[in-house]
Each structure stands twice: as structure tokens, then as C-alpha cells.
Amino acid sequence: MKRRLVLVALLIAFAAVGRMAVAVTLQEEIDLGKRIDVQIMKDNQLYSDDKAQNEMEEYGRKLAKYVGRPQIPYHFKILKDNDFNAFSVPGGYVYFTDHLWRVLRKDERIGVIAHEITHVDRRHAIDAISKQQKRQTILSILLAVTKASNILNNVVGIAEQMYTLKYSRGDEEQADTGAVDLCQKAGYNPAGILLSMYKIQRFQSESGGAPPKIFSDHPPTKERLLYLKTLLASKGIAVPAENIETATTPYRIGEVVTAGSDTMTFTSSKPLVAGDIVWVMRDGWDFYYEKRSAVPAARGVVTSGGQSPSANVWLIPSTKKVQPAKGMGVYGPPLPALERGVGLLMPLSRQAAVGKLQFSAPPQMLERLFAVQAVWNKDNTQLTNDNAGYLVVTNPSNETGYVGIQRPMLSYAPMEFSSVLVKVNDQDQRRWIGPIVSIGKGGGTIEVTTTSTLVAGKTYDVLSPGWNKDDTYVKRVVGTANPQSTTGKIVLKMVGFAGGWSMADVQNGFDVYEQEQQSK
Fold it and tell me: How confident is the model at residue 218 (pLDDT cuts 50, 70, 90)?
């Protein structure tokens, strides 16, 4: 789904305030923060780990006792998002992504929270935006929002500006200094911010030199590290060394001999047959960015065994893509046992866009199925079974009679390559109409295969697939559509889109639902 963290659709009235000098009061700043938070929580989901949420709240509350502006009520939230980020907005709102939270240890988490609190306490976001825009214009916008202006002719995404905001060198150093001071006063390890920066630097090297959004790239990470070490030393605080270990990775069976764009030959210490799965590993970091470790770079499906096995290869999307090359390690860890399911989806060829359905009993028309394969968990620490694709049977008598969609994050495990088919359990099945089978992008239309009767003039919801239990109905909504024809070929026209979605994003395999009837 294209809703990225805090690229929220915060629409703010653009009021033409004619004053030459305006100022944002403390209460207006707090009101602005409330409005931004409401929009953030509309487009994002809280991380479901209550223990983690309570932990962040505990750290944040203790740190916030020592701020310079104690009138601001602070709020601390962990959002479910795979980005590597933490950020804050005016008015006392501090956020972590669950990815960053899980990567960092206690002292590192506290250091980052203290850093973000300082940004809020020193008004860095408001002041930075004021410097980047015409001061009168931007402050007028802020005041219009906090005063609930009903002028909606022009809108601007302030939340997005705050997310992409680059703080000045002075602001970042002030936030680092503030983090150390807050941690000292609250009785936490004041070196936590430095420990977190060690990991930030490793993440930066892993992503090809691009800094994560957690901190501005001014000053550069290496300079920040030096500054933090000097700061700690000047306060008589022990400077922790950057100790790096090397983890051992089991199940290595050989190495790459030759590699093409999507094929390879390799050595193997164990016998392999066509269809076996192997993994090419690259040098990287473990999940916590603490140990050097082999991490999966590509998935190989063996095409021929023998003394010189060969395989088709798919790159694994990650922070750092690495093409298989001579000498890289090939691994063969045991695959988790797959459930039996109701059938299989087998390949026709590597080039084919579809596979062939195989069922022990004939499938039903519009039967909904997940294509399950063995893939790496999101931490790249172990293999697990997960939904690699979603499909709906549209012609039970045809072995390729389905419409399907590949799960983007698991593109290295194409669903048509030996997936086990498992029935979808959808609590909203009673309202499900059918899948999109054709799209007219130019006219904004979609064709749906259905056994239901659509009602002219009624509005229907269009949803992306629900890959897991956390993908709620509301989170999956792409947009809305109205029927253009209700007999024969069923065609609907898209009439609205959820935040971050457009007609260009609609795909065959998306679902159409009847909207929930609101009780009167």
C-alpha cells in the first residue's frame, strides 16, 4: 500500500492573513499538534505490542519532566511501519516506527526519544519551516489551522513538510546536547544517543550511503559521531566503544560459480534436484545492526542438479540489493513444513505471467485463495510460511482460469512457482462482490467478475488484498466506484481515492465490496 509514514493527507486552510508579524503561541502549537496527530492516526496503525507502547510511554514521561517548556503535554506512540524512522511534530507528539523500535536496545531507544523531545521543546520544526518559507505565509497557515479556519480553497501538506524537514546543523547539535542532558537528569544512560548513532551509521552504509530519515543529513553521520564523543567526554561521561562481532551462519552448501541477470551455476555439498530452493547470501548485518552476518540476497530455484547445479534467481527486495556474483555463498536451510491447503499453483515457465492451478477437487467459481510459500520473515532471521500472492478463480474449468496479484514485498517468491493454495478467511465475505479483472486507466474504469447484482447509483469500495490479519478493511481501502453497467460486462467508474492512492495504482486482483450499511 502506498500510504507511507506521515505522508498524511493533512489539508490545511491557506488563509490570507495580512499581518506583517505573527507568532505561534504555545496553545496554538499544541492545537496544531493535535490536528496533525489525528491525521497521522487515520493513515497509520499503532504497533500492536502493548508492552512496547507502555515502555515508550514510561521513558518519554520520565524524560519530559525535565524539558524547558513543561506546559506541553507529551504523547508517545509506536506506529506499525517497516520504515527505519522516528520523528516528532510540534505540540508534544513523538513517534517511532516499530522497525526502528525493535532494532534499537533500551539505552538507544531512550536516546532517540530524548533527541525528538528536544526538537519539540526548542520549537525546531516551526522555526525551520518558517525559515524555509515566507515567514508571513507559513505562520498564517499555522494560525489558520489552529483557529479552525473554514476556508478550504487552497490546501498544503504541512505534515509532509515536517517529515521531510532538514534541521540546521545547530538544531541537530542542540537536539543531541538536549538528549544527553535529559538522559542525565532522568537517570538514564546519556550515551544512548551515541549508541543509536553507531547503528544509524551501519544502516547508512547498508543502504548505499543514503541517511535514514530518522536524522537530518546535516551534519553528516561521521561528524555527528565525533561531535557526540567529544560532547560526552566534555561532561565526564564514559564514551562507549563501537564493538562489532561476526555471527556464524549455518547451512552453507557451496558458492556461486557463474551468474547471469537471472540465472546462476554453483557448487553444492548436498544433492539437489529441480525445484529445490537455495539462497544466495551477501555480507551484511544482523537485524539489530550489531553483528556482521550473512543475509539473504537472492532466492534460487534449482533447474538442474548434478555436480554443477544451476538455478533461476530472483533478487530479494531489501535496503541494499546485491546481484549474485562469483564466490558468494549459497545456503540450503531447511524449509518450514507447508500446510496441505486445497491445491497448488505450479509454473508453466519462468517467463509465463501465470501458473497452472492443480486441485484435488474442482474449485468453486470465485473461490478466493492465498498462494503460500516459504519466505524470510521481515527480520531476515528465519524462514517462515507466508502469503506470497492472492488469487480468485474466475474459470474453474481452465487450469489458468484465475486472476491474481503478487505480494510486492515477496516478489522474490513468485506465486506461480510451486505455491500451496489456502482458502481466504474474510470476515467481510458477505459484502464481497468480486475481483477486478480488467482496467481502463484512461477512463478510470474497472471491470469486475461477480455473481452478485450491482445497483445503479450505489457506491462500492475498492480494496487492495488483505495479506495478513493486521490489514484491516479500513486500511485496505483504495477508493470508491459507481457502476456504469450492471448487466453483462460489469463495469464501474472510480469516483474517489483514499490518501496516497490514484488510478495508476489500481491492479487486477483488487477486491470490490459493497459498502457497510450504517445503522440509523
Answer: low
- Whether omega before 219 lies within 30 degrees of 0, making that bond cis, reads yes
Compute the distance between CA of residue 69 and CA of residue 138 in angstroms, rounded to an integer.
23
List, for residues 237-273, the tens digit of each pLDDT value: 999 999 899 999 999 999 999 999 999 999 999 999 9
Sign for the CA dihedral angle at 163, 168, 172, 178 comes to: negative
Same fold yes or no, 251-331 and 429-520: yes
Confirm or reject CATH 2.40.10 for domain 429-520, answering yes or no: yes
Q: CA-to-CA distance for 443 and 506, rounded, in angstroms?
A: 13
The total number of residues shown for the chain amounts to: 520
Residue ranges of domains in the chain? 12-234, 251-331, 336-425, 429-520
Whether the CB-CB separation of 439 and 445 falls below 8 Å is answered with yes
Give the count of beta carbons closer than 10 Å to the beta carbon of residue 219: 17
Question: What is the torsion angle, in degrees rounded to the nearest 10, for the CA atoms of residue 502, residue 503, residue 506 and residue 507?
Answer: -140
Cell numbers placing 113? 526519544
Question: Whole-angstrom Cα distance, residue 302 to residue 287?
Answer: 28
Residue 305 is placed in which grid cell?
Answer: 542438479
The CATH fold of domain 251-331? Thrombin, subunit H (2.40.10)
Nearest in space to 74 (alpha carbons), one of 84, 86, 65, 87: 65
Examine the pLDDT at 155 and tell me if it is beyond 50. Answer: no
DSSP β-ladder status, 86-89 and 93-97: antiparallel
By the 8 A CB rule, do 404 and 507 touch? no
Closest CA to 9 of 387, 516, 496: 496
The three three-digit cell numbers of residue 477, written as one number: 481501502
